[in-house]
């Protein structure tokens, strides 16, 4: 008898072992009658008033040099200088990555034809001034400094690739010219990422800049736009290795106090890109097993911000927008008759409303970046039917 309990424990432990890199539990119970989800529930064309509001924030900040957070290691005194000298293209919007996605916002809204004539002219002039061979040469010199190390990795790198993906997909003489100027920096970032990803032993499961899942979503979309099959395959492989056997993600523990990305939902948004529909449906059942099937929205409450002037606390306004696009994308990646879709879309709508409402010029702490997240959400940038 003294060996019975250890034997039972051993059997239980073995029953939970994962041998396949992608978890394959039973699918969500299909006996539940699915609630129909209208296509109109998902993001589509952005309202012109929102486009004007979001573009104004980016137009103001991409050339606003101060305040500025320069997060960079330096070897010599000569490497210390003003933001505009260090980063000739991306010196505004408080920090480098926000300047990058501020430029992306302008390109996105220009490409979609959502700006009025005055805003179009101003956006083109500012993009022309910042995205040219001279300014990008300065950016590349900074990026290639030996002391750079992991500077802006992976968040800023991913946003730079999102910017160039937008330019690649836009058949415009202006876009082609700006892309030609920025391609050397793009190539350097892609090469650096291809070197880094195989050496990343574990995923980075944070809710802020260093999170690996968010970066990989943007990088994966770039690989498709650039037709870089090697990079696409690398990301698929790393995503499966990092997350294929993940189960029971603790969504109830989110958000942390300074999150602007959901570790659980962003991971699912990555995996729906790299897994076939059936495989993703199975994986999601194990990863987030408590998604309701009743069409309710209150199973995931939006984050609240108690002081929007605080640059860290205001991150939570961003988590509402990013959660919204995650939830919409996860829902669309499931079969039409999957009973979880209605609750995913309902929660997405509540988060969308909270995220968009928070975009304001009242405080620069959020004003320099929240419009980019809201634009990504409201223009449906993260989804493709292909």
N→C terminal distance: 60 Å
- Give the name of the CATH architecture: Alpha/alpha barrel
Low confidence ranges: 1-20, 24-30
* Helix vs. strand class: mainly alpha
**Given this structure, which CATH class is correct?**
Mainly Alpha
- Report the C-alpha radius of gyration, rounded: 22 Å
Q: SSE order in H/E notation?
A: HHHHHHHHHHHHHHHH
Count of structural domains: 1
Strand content: under 5%
Characterize the largest beta sheet: strand count, sense, and whether it forms a barrel. Answer: none
Helix content: 40-55%
Mean pLDDT: 92
* Helix count from the secondary structure assignment: 16
Q: What is the 3D form?
A: globular
In CATH, the topology is named Glycosyltransferase
Total number of strands: 0
Protein name: DUF2891 domain-containing protein
Signal peptide: 1-19
Pfam families: DUF2891
Keywords: Signal
Could you explain the architecture of this structure?
Residues 1-19 form the signal peptide. InterPro entries: DUF2891. Keywords: Signal. It comes from Algimonas arctica. This is DUF2891 domain-containing protein. The chain has 386 residues and is an all-alpha fold. It has one domain: Glycosyltransferase. The protein has 16 helices and no strands. It has helices spanning 4-15, 48-61, 83-86, 96-111, 117-130, 133-143, 155-169, 173-196, 212-226, 229-243, 263-274, 277-287, 315-333, 341-357, 364-367, 370-378. Helix 4 packs parallel to helix 16. It is globular. The N and C termini lie far apart (60 Å). Residues 1-20 and 24-30 have low confidence and may be disordered.
């Amino acid at each position: 008898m003294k060996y019975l309990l250890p034997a039972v424990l051993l059997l239980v432990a073995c029953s939970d072992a994962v041998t396949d890199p992608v978890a394959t539990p039973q699918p969500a119970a299909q006996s539940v009658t699915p609630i129909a989800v209208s296509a109109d529930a998902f993001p589509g064309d952005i309202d012109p008033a929102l486009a004007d509001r979001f573009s104004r924030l980016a137009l103001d900040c991409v050339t606003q040099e101060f305040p500025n957070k320069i997060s960079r290691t330096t070897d010599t005194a000569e490497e210390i200088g003003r933001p505009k000298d260090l980063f000739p293209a991306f010196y505004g919007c408080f920090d480098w990555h926000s300047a990058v996605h501020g430029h992306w916002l302008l390109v996105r809204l220009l490409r979609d034809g959502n700006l009025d004539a005055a805003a179009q002219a101003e956006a083109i002039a500012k993009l022309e001034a910042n995205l040219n061979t001279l300014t990008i040469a300065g950016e590349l010199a900074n990026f290639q400094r030996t002391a750079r190390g992991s500077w802006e990795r992976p968040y800023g790198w991913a946003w730079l690739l999102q910017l160039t993906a937008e330019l690649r997909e836009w058949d415009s003489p202006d876009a082609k010219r700006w892309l030609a100027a920025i391609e050397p920096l793009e190539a350097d970032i892609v090469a650096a990422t291809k070197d880094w990803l195989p050496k990343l032993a574990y995923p980075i499961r944070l809710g802020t800049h260093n999170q690996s899942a968010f970066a990989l979503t943007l990088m994966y979309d770039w690989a498709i736009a650039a037709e870089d099959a090697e990079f696409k395959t690398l990301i698929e492989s790393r995503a499966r290795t990092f997350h294929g056997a993940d189960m029971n993600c603790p969504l109830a523990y989110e958000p942390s106090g300074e999150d602007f990305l959901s570790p659980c939902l962003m991971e699912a948004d990555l995996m729906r890109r790299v897994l076939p529909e059936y495989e993703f449906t199975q994986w999601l059942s194990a990863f987030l097993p408590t998604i309701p099937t009743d069409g309710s929205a209150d199973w995931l409450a939006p984050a609240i911000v108690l002081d929007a002037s605080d640059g860290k606390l205001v991150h939570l306004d961003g988590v509402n927008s990013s959660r919204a696009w995650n939830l919409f994308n996860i829902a669309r990646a499931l079969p039409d008759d999957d009973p979880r879709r209605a609750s995913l879309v309902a929660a997405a709508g509540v988060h969308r409303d909270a995220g968009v409402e928070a975009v304001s010029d009242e405080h620069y702490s959020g004003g320099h970046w929240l419009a980019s997240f809201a634009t990504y959400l409201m223009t449906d940038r993260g989804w493709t039917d292909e």
